[in-house]
């Protein structure tokens, strides 16, 4: 006999029995003290793991800051901005590694199989590595450029066919400004060799042609007097230039060589100042001779 819903009494009883069983299962799950204690302990473990990870990251950050401050106060002459760049890079790597390990430990707390997950991550990383070899090479090269202090912002360098002043050093690219104002953006992976003109002091070299009619000793003495005290007037020069003597000789003239040590990347300015002071001294000498004549 069917009820008003069109169901047989046996079917109704079976459905009611299944509903009661589900409610019993749900109630047993809600009132399962052992299960909730396990969840509580798991949550506590996850919280402890998270707090320990934060603490480790802060400790490593502090160690990085102390190390860089110690290096900055040492006698090594390095651009302060480079310490900031290296410090931030090391901190980012530290945070990534610690957080990655933390996630793996938390997943293991919830009985996740880490083997397949790590295998999948390895395959994905390998695929990305093959597809982005140039990017990885640029980043690694940029890291070592910064870490090894190969050149700094403001340095005059030459790399391959590019020559100019360094404007920005990034992990992937380096930006330079050429002598004529052009901008070069070079992937760090292409920087295989560098000539840095700004590391050591430069040497200003001036070759002054003089007519053979001029007496050698008088000319050398005149040039030497003209350059006395020039280092005090011109900050590019570290000391007064030295007159080396005659560099070459022809039937019409002889060439006097003058050299002076100057600051890095200031050779052109120093040479122009030396020429100017010598020219002024020669003009004054000619005026004196003409007035005496």
Describe this structure in words.
The chain has 293 residues and is of the alpha+beta class. The protein folds into 3 domains: 34-131, Helix Hairpins (Orthogonal Bundle), CATH 1.10.287.1260; 148-196, SH3 type barrels, CATH 2.30.30; 202-292, 2-Layer Sandwich (Alpha-Beta Plaits). The chain is 57% helix and 18% strand. The chain is built from 8 helices and 8 strands. The chain has helices spanning 9-30, 33-73, 80-109, 114-131, 133-147, 216-226, 230-233, 267-292; strands at residues 156-159, 162-169, 173-178, 183-187, 195-196, 202-211, 242-249, 253-262. It has a 5-stranded antiparallel beta sheet with strand order 4-3-2-1-5. Helix 2 (33-73) runs antiparallel to helix 3 and helix 6 packs across helix 8 (267-292). It is rod-shaped and about 140 Å long. The mean pLDDT is 80.
Give a quick set of tags describing it:
8 strands, three-stranded antiparallel sheet, single chain, SH3 type barrels, 293 residues, five-stranded antiparallel sheet, Alpha-Beta Plaits, transmembrane helix, alpha+beta, membrane, 3 domains, rod-shaped, Helix Hairpins
What layout of secondary structure does this protein have?
Layout lengths: L8 H22 L2 H41 L6 H30 L4 H18 L1 H15 L8 E4 L2 E8 L3 E6 L4 E5 L7 E2 L5 E10 L4 H11 L3 H4 L8 E8 L3 E10 L4 H26 L1
Antiparallel strand pairs: 1-2, 1-5, 2-3, 3-4, 6-8, 7-8
Helix pairs in contact: 2-3, 6-8
Gist of the model:
InterPro entries: LSM_dom_sf (IPR010920), MS_channel_1st (IPR049142), MscS_beta-dom_sf (IPR023408), MscS_channel_2nd (IPR006685), MscS_channel_TM-2 (IPR011014), YbiO_bact (IPR045276). Belongs to the MscS (TC 1.A.23) family. The protein has 293 residues and is an alpha+beta fold.
């Amino acid at each position: 006999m069917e009820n008003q819903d069109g169901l047989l009494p046996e079917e109704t009883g079976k459905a009611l029995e299944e509903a009661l069983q589900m409610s019993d299962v749900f109630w047993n799950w809600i009132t399962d003290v052992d299960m909730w204690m396990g969840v509580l302990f798991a949550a506590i473990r996850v919280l402890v793991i998270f707090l320990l990870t934060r603490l480790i990251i802060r400790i490593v950050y502090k160690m990085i800051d102390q190390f860089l401050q110690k290096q900055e106060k040492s006698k090594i002459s390095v651009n302060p901005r480079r310490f900031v760049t290296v410090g931030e890079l090391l901190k980012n790597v530290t945070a990534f590694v610690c957080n990655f390990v933390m996630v793996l430990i938390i997943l293991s707390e919830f009985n996740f199989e880490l083997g397949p997950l790590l295998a999948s991550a390895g395959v994905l990383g390998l695929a990305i590595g093959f597809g982005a070899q140039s990017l990885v090479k640029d980043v690694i090269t940029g890291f070592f450029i910064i870490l090894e202090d190969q050149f700094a912002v403001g340095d005059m360098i030459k790399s391959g066919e590019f020559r100019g002043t360094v404007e920005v050093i990034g992990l992937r690219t380096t930006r330079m400004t050429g002598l004529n104002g052009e901008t070069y953006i070079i992937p760090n992976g292409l920087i295989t060799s560098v000539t840095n003109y700004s590391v050591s002091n430069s040497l200003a070299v001036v070759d002054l042609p003089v007519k053979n009619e001029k007496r050698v000793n008088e000319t050398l003495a005149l040039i030497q007097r003209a350059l006395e005290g020039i280092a005090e007037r011109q900050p590019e020069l570290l000391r007064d230039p030295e007159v080396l003597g005659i560099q070459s000789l022809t039937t019409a003239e002889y060439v006097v060589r003058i050299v002076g040590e100057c600051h890095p990347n200031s050779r052109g300015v120093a040479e122009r100042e030396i020429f100017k002071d010598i020219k002024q001294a020669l003009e004054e000498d000619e005026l004196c001779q003409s007035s005496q004549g």
